[in-house]
Amino acid sequence: MKLAKTAVALLAACAFSQSALAAETKISIGHVDSQNWQVSKKGAATQVFKNLVEAESAGRISVDIFPSGQLGSETDLLQSVQEGMVGMTIVSGSFSKICPEAAVLEIPYLFPSSPVAWEVLDGPFGQKLAQHCLEKTGIRTLAYGETGFRHFTNSKKVIKKPEDLAGMKIRVMPNQSFIEFMKILKATATPISAPELPAALTTKVVDGQENPVSVIVEMKLYELQDHITLDGHVYSADFLVINDDLYKGLSDDDRAIINRAAKVAGTVGRAIQQINSAQGLETLTKNGMQVTTLTENELEAFRTASQPKMISWLSSRIDKEWMTSAQSSVEQAQNDL
Question: Most CB within 10 Å of its CB: which of 145, 159, 319, 325?
Fold first, then answer.
């Protein structure tokens, strides 16, 4: 861990020294995805953020991007932002490790669509969650992006009902909510980091996995999996965050620039995710994957089998009011749209 922290500090210091003479304020931002904006929502979001901030500040603020896990995993990045070694990051599922209340977004089948999720996250509920996590962690959420709806893939059979998952070995990210979700559906949850996933599928350590379509395409998992079930069990948001001491140290004008750029960046990330998901389904089909779209009754069976038990489990870890508030916010958003 000390070596990892030293490496992060050296990279950040090198980036600072290269641009300190040209900018009054230097901000480093790291993430684990590719920087290719055409395939990476985090890459697109951070590039837009950099361009807007540097342009609007006339170079007074410079932004250096460290993609592809150069500064460590999402967990490493969050710790580095907390400690002020890295200024900003954009992460998804790992955020609930430092702010457990963020796991409320991992309630299975909570969001019926992306527009509803955007309405909830950009509205009072998302603001309340951001403020709570700021007070708990010292990290300020500037905007919400999108990793997208997660779906099951596997190499064994078509999955159309909860019982089809029983006994299957499913890779999940190292996240306790996802592990519990698999237990509820009587599957064997196998936490594996993303870089190790292709090898785990190739060697049959696991039968399947769950990820958004865009990730499945980007990692070419269609070469290793035969079936995908579009159940959208969890909507994964991206959290675009900044060290709060860094943020509060900026002038009012510079904070306004950062805020505006972050909102645009989150929106751009969502757009790239939506484009890649829509195009990705065609890619999966062309590469031989059998795509299963669930009927409303089939989807309701998954929701009934998992959501109440998951809410009960989450209630033992965080205040149940978070679940109640999230569900009421979703209902309100559906009525408003």
Answer: 145
Q: What token pair was written down for 134?
A: 């700021």
Give strand pairing partners of 61.
25
Asked if residues 45 and 238 have their Cβ atoms less than 8 Å apart, the reply is yes
Asked if domains 2-147+237-275 and 151-234+278-336 share a fold, the reply is: yes
Domain chopping of the chain, boundaries: 2-147+237-275, 151-234+278-336
Cβ within 8 Å of residue 310, ≥6 positions away: 107, 108, 177, 180, 181, 184
Q: Residue 131's Cα: distance from chain center in Å?
A: 18
Beta strand 61-66 with 139-149 is unpaired
**CATH fold of the domain at 151-234+278-336:** D-Maltodextrin-Binding Protein; domain 2 (3.40.190)
pTM of the shown model:
0.90
- Which pLDDT band, with edges at 50, 70 and 90, does 152 fall under? very high
DSSP-derived 3-state class of residue 245: helix
C-beta neighbour count of 189 within 10 angstroms: 20
DSSP symbols for 181-244: HHHHTT-EEEE--GGGHHHHHHTTS-SEEEE-HHHHHHTTGGGT-SEEEE----EEEEEEEEEH
Mean pLDDT computed over 108-137: 98
CATH topology of domain 2-147+237-275: D-Maltodextrin-Binding Protein; domain 2 (3.40.190)
